[in-house]
Amino acid sequence: MREIKADDITKTIANLFKHSCHYLPQDVLTALKQAREKEKSEVARDVLDKILENCEIAAKEQIPLCQDTGAAVVMLELGQEVHIVGNDLYAAVNEGVRQGYANGYLRKSIVRQPFSERINTRDNTPAMIYTDIVPGNKLKITVMPKGGGSENMSRLTVVAPAQGRQGIIDFVVNRVDEAGSNPCPPVIVGIGIGGTTEKTMMLAKKALLRKVGEPNRDAEIAELEKDILKRVNNLGIGAMGYGGTITALAVHIETFPCHIASLPVAVNMQCWCARHEDAIL
Amino acid sequence: MAQVKKVRLPLTNETLKELRAGDNLLLSGVMYVGRDAAHKRLVEAMEQGKPLPIDIKGLTIYFMGPSPARPGRPIGSAGPTTSGRMDAYSPRLIAEGLKGMIGKGLRSKAVKDAMVKYKAVYLGAIGGAGALISKSIKKAEVVAYEELGAEALRRLEVEDFPVTVINDIYGGDLYEEGKAQYRVKE
User: Fold this and answer.
1) pLDDT at position B1
2) What DSSP line would sit under A75-100, residue for residue?
3) What is the chain A residue with the closest CA to B133?
4) Contact A179/A269 with Cβ under 8 angstroms?
5) What is the domain count for chain A?
6) Under an 8 A CB cutoff, do B150 and A273 touch?
7) What is the ipTM of this complex?
8) Considering the domain boundaries, does residue A27 fall inside one?
9) Contact A54 B1 (CB under 8 A)
């Protein structure tokens, strides 16, 4: 058994949220620069220039990239040989969110009662925490400040297995088209296929954590990613919906076996401001 | 790229006549900030005939909820929120004299119709570019509904605040026109 102090988890979570709200991952920045080179619309190129300038200002002046510093999504991969000491694991995570959002001047965007009072909890807790138990004696922490604008454009459906590949393409492309300018394109489209409904939604979210544009290891799935990306970019929505040839930076698909009667498909939309960061304790 | 036009706030009908969907503008002057909760309170007060904390006539409203300001700065990150959530309230405010809305994302037909009928424009700010946009905000103060926190009604003084005209008073719509231009038929 290896001991990990709850305090260290709290500190790590606080630092990850603060840092990730000011610095985009290098692969996201590279994808945005490549989009700037490839984009045919002058109006959209101007938007991408301002987006890249925004990233420089955020880092230099310590102003969050986007004022929506998100719901605090936290994914834990907990080694089964780890023993957490000093506090409950989830209490330690929430304390990290509390500290990171307060000290980092990040916006608190969580309301307690979702459909009536909607009173702000004022510390951005509770975090959305997901834990996988894995072999080993380490704890991997991934944080993802997830903005409301893109999250609201996410959707889940269950297509008939007979509709197969085409059914998946039609659902996803139609979703991106309907979402239009709302999710702050150029987007990353996270897609889950298979599993049960809650499982496929998680697959779609985890697909967003992959390095931008890195294809799925399975050739057939990678081919589907390529086909959907082409269709999505043919929609013409462009950066911020002002018209253009780059509506999505990438399409990422994750799959899982599913029931004989089902073919669940989930889309989790990610704005261009694709913030996430991880650390291993 | 079309030339960037410098525009003084408040917007007048004379200014609005010159604006077309797709124009890039730099706004200077005073605008107000409100999101869902502030809109709900404004429209409820109007319906109950109660006095409003601000004059709607000639107003430009920015759909935004900032991150907290660091000490010594007027505001934190300050990019637009999704405008569609204000669709339920905007037509009523436009009829009352609202001239400009700044946000991002699609608007309903009712809002677009009201913009043509009463002469108002919808301006797009770049979603996610809250750090960049914050540089053009020189002063910010809460004027009402302070208890709403990030959703309070704020008064901003801005200089060269960058926006793009999405909907003009002639029915022009950049989202429709831009998409049509680059759409590839399958």
Assistant:
1) 52
2) EEEEETTEEEESS-HHHHHHHHHHHH
3) A54
4) yes
5) 2
6) no
7) 0.95
8) no
9) no
pLDDT tens by residue, A13-43: 999 999 999 999 999 999 999 999 999 999 9
**Residue B134 contacts residue B140 (beta carbons within 8 Å):** no
- Asked which of A130, A146, A162 is the last residue of a domain, the reply is A146
- Type of residue numbered A220: E
Give B4 to chain A, closest Cα distance, Å.
12
> What is the spatial distance between Cα A274 and Cα A196, in angstroms, rounded to a whole number?
26
Is A243 in contact with B174 (Cβ distance < 8 A)? yes
How many angstroms away from the CA of B64 is the closest CA of chain A?
Answer: 8
For residues A223-257, b (16+ Cβ closer than 10 Å) or e, as one string? ebbeebbebbbbbbbbbbbbbbbbbbbbbbbbbee
Determine the residue of chain A that is closest to B24 in CA distance.
A43
Please report which confidence band the pLDDT of residue B3 belongs to, taking 50, 70 and 90 as the band edges.
confident
Q: Evaluate if residue B2 carries a pLDDT over 70.
A: no
Q: How many CB pairs under 8 A join A and B?
A: 173
B186:A234 CB<8 A: yes
Whole-number percent of chain B with pLDDT over 90? 92
Structure tokens at A196: 């049960």
Domain that holds residue A9: 2-20+65-146
Which among A47, A231, A235 has CB closest to B126? Answer: A47
CA separation for the pair B171, A182 (Å, rounded) = 20
Put simply, the chain A residues between 3 and 22 with a CB less than 8 A from any chain B CB are: none
Is the per-residue pLDDT at A161 higher than 80?
yes
Residues of A in contact with B150 (CB under 8 A): 107-109, 120
CB of A58 within 8 Å of any CB in chain B?
yes
Provide the domain count of chain B.
Answer: 1
Instruction: State pLDDT tens for residues B92-119.
Output: 999 999 999 999 999 999 999 999 999 9
Find, in chain B, the residue whose alpha carbon is nearest to that of A274.
B128
Tens digits of per-residue pLDDT, B122-158?
A: 999 999 999 999 999 999 999 999 888 888 999 999 9
Q: Which residues of B touch A55 (CB under 8 A)?
A: 131
Residues A173 and A232 in one domain: yes
Q: Which of A100, A129, A146 is the last residue of a domain?
A: A146
| Pairwise CB contact (< 8 Å): A244 & B178 | yes
**Do A192 and A267 belong to one domain?**
yes
